[in-house]
Amino acid sequence: MPATIFAQDPSEAATTASGQKLRVAVAPMMSPSDTFASYFRLLQYLGSQLGMELEFVQRKTHAEVRELLHSNSIDMAFICSGPYALDTTDTGQNLLAMPVVQGESTYQSYVIVHASSQAKSLNDLSDKTFAFTDPDSNTGYLNPVFLLRQAGYAPESFFRSTIFTHSHDNSILAVARGLVDAAAVNSLVWDYSEARRPELTGKTKVLVKSGAFAIPPVVTSAGMDDSRRNKIRDILLHMHENPQGRAMLQELRIDRFVVPEDAWYANVRHMAAPSFSEGPAHGQALP
Predict the structure, then answer these.
(1) Is residue 285 part of a domain?
(2) Would the pTM of this model clear 0.70, i.e. be above it?
(3) DSSP state, residue 268
(4) β-strand 182-186 against 22-26: which pairing, if any?
(5) Could you give the CA distance from residue 233 to residue 193 in angstroms, rounded to a whole number?
(6) What is the domain extent for residue 68?
(7) Where does the UniProt annotation place the signal sequence (predicted)?
(8) pLDDT digits (tens, 9 = 90+) for 184-209
């Protein structure tokens, strides 16, 4: 079986950009150790099916993963919907596939609070401490900020203070431990944590649920040739038909992969548009 290499150095990834190793990044939706543990076997399977060595590249922020894609320093990435939608013109990335999770092709942003919180709505979080995940995150930043700005509020004045945790499980942990009053998190990560670590999510509760967004996609760099892109897509689309592949998908609560359309991410792109950097006058109700 081809070896899996855990790459940390951006310059190292860049020097192999034209080689026979497949460089794959996983966006920082979970902490580095949990991301590595969760995706290691899936990526091993992909490497074995391709007959290639594989470099597993991790970065702290979504912006760093986007830059690696734009510079063709990685071949493929499991990214957040936000970074995909933010690249509205010369993207440097191509849609490859999208997971269907527990029968759903959509997910939500959850605003969570501690289980003991008396908050009943987002309005009740005024002057509270709040955790975002990443400035490019759809569920962990774009959506909650959009809701606030639509109601005429800016995060920096609505909340007493805010932090960026750089992963959704870190945000869940921060609320559970009382380090912050509330956080915005990816529903898929919260549900995954509830299944695997109920003692942690049991210390939190969901205050607000957003509308539906297309699940974060898998993309390839613009520099990947079509034959390799098609081969990788074919492996992912049929992975659930292979007993070994299906077992690995089940570990991630993934049913199968499907081919997404760019239009599915239009609502995320809408929230990120510069025209929504300012909201209307104060007084619009918050959920």
Answers:
(1) no
(2) yes
(3) H
(4) unpaired
(5) 28
(6) 4-99+216-270
(7) none
(8) 999 999 998 998 889 999 999 999 99
